Amino acid sequence: MRMGIFGLVGGRVNQTSPERLTYAGISVIHPALLADQPQGAFALAPLLRTAIDNQRVSGERYAGLWVDVGTPERLVALEEQIMGDKG
Question: What domain of life does the native source organism fall in (predicted)?
């Protein structure tokens, strides 16, 4: 069984629930969360963890098919799988 990194209770994301879910990388972020960050690239995870601890992050559980296509190779593999399913 794969373990996630966050919990979800009553629509609020937490870091303490025994049931762990995986963040899919899809988000809507209020600009105020980013207001004090420097220009350029920065780590988002610490900001999210602080916001989670302050009960400022909501979430939804998606129970449908989800595939991580985070690399070109994984995207090609998924495209081949989809095209194979149609043929």
Answer: Bacteria
